[in-house]
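Journal club prep, shared notes

We agreed each person brings one worked example of a sequence with its structure written out as tokens. Mine is Response regulatory domain-containing protein. I'm keeping it raw so we can talk through how to read the token line rather than staring at a rendered picture. Sequence first:
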Amino acid sequence: MGPVGRLESAMQMARERALDGAILDINLNGRPCFPVCAILSARRIPFVFLTGYPDAAVPTEYRGAPLIAKPFEPDELMEMLARMLDLPQDWPLPEQRQSSVRH
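Then the structure, token by token:
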């Protein structure tokens, strides 16, 4: 689902949707995503930061979450998603990967 670019919409989705995990940019239209992190954490939904901000921008309570720095390689994101969602290491198979990942 998504993308969601506004904090309020992201918080609503985090509260109401059945989610397996989330990919979060720290900056949601000029506002930090950390209220979304609080909701996801309370619901035990894993998340990963995909951002141009350094690790230091993440509050202490969320520094255990994985962080992928922009620019990134699509395979880096795929590997992180596989780990976050406990998917097989070869997911998806190379021939199933699409080069349409924007970064």
